[in-house]
Design a protein that fits this description.
The complex is a heterodimer of chains A (112) and B (111). Chain A has no helices and eleven strands. By secondary structure, chain B is mostly beta strands. In chain B, the strands form two sheets. Chain B has a five-stranded mixed beta sheet, with no helix packed on it. The relative contact order of chain B is 0.35. Classes of the chains: A mainly beta (112), B mainly beta (111).
């Protein structure tokens, strides 16, 4: 399967710990997006990359959040000093800047 | 904020057509209408998009009103696997840097 993959699929952490998620996009896609989704809501945009450049960050992305996409391939999203409010599904998508974004299955984060 | 308004939920009998409405009264001339759906515990999936003309693909049809202030997604023969949340999104085609999702319509297809 050559779709978008995310790792891990589930993560349980204690408040105050740091967590890192990985996203592997479809190989020929130059754009990579991160979204966050809480229960009963649609996904909310966090940030996106074109190749290795991070072009936009939402105000939702506090300074505890950082994303990277070294060499324009996979991406990581790190959350430092996690809070209970960070509990959500973190979705990654890739695309070529046209009509479609292809989403991965998401990483479900639970902060206890 | 999302630029679209959708009913929170709809039901449809299996085998019948599902017609999902969306209002986007503030759409601008260069903005497209996109539809995505999200099946439980999966990431969203692209369905179809359009600018002003009606569009059809293997998954669905999109009917856009002449004034472009509303549209309808049609699933011609709904199956149980079409049970999902359907999102109507307005955005530009050449610079889809982000998708602004609303809360969508939860479509329940029943036997």
């Amino acid at each position: 399967d050559t779709g978008v993959s995310q790792d891990p699929r589930h993560k349980i952490t204690k408040r105050g710990q740091n967590v890192t998620f990985r996203c592997d996009p479809i190989s020929e896609h130059n754009r990579l997006y991160w979204y966050r989704q809480t229960l009963g809501q649609g996904p909310e945009f966090l940030t996106y990359f074109q190749n290795e450049a991070q072009l936009e960050k939402s105000r939702l992305l506090s300074d505890r959040f950082s994303a990277e996409r070294p060499k324009g391939s996979f991406s990581t999203l790190e959350i430092q000093r996690t809070e209970q409010g960070d509990s959500a599904m973190y979705l990654c998508a890739s695309g070529q800047g046209r009509y479609e974004q292809y989403f991965g299955p998401g990483t479900r984060l639970t902060v206890t | 904020d999302a630029k679209t308004t959708q009913p929170p939920s709809m039901d449809c009998a299996e085998g019948r057509a599902a017609n999902l409405p969306c209002n986007h009264s503030t759409i601008s001339g260069n903005e497209y209408v996109y539809w995505y759906r999200q099946i439980h515990s999966q990431g969203p999936q692209y369905i179809i998009h359009g600018l002003k003309n009606n569009e059809t693909n293997e998954m669905a049809s999109l009917i856009i009103t002449e004034d472009r202030k509303s549209s309808t997604l049609i699933l011609p023969h709904a199956t149980l696997r079409d049970t999902a949340v359907y999102y109507c999104i307005v955005g530009e085609s050449y610079n889809t840097d982000k998708l602004i999702f609303g809360t969508g319509t939860r479509l329940q297809v029943f036997p």
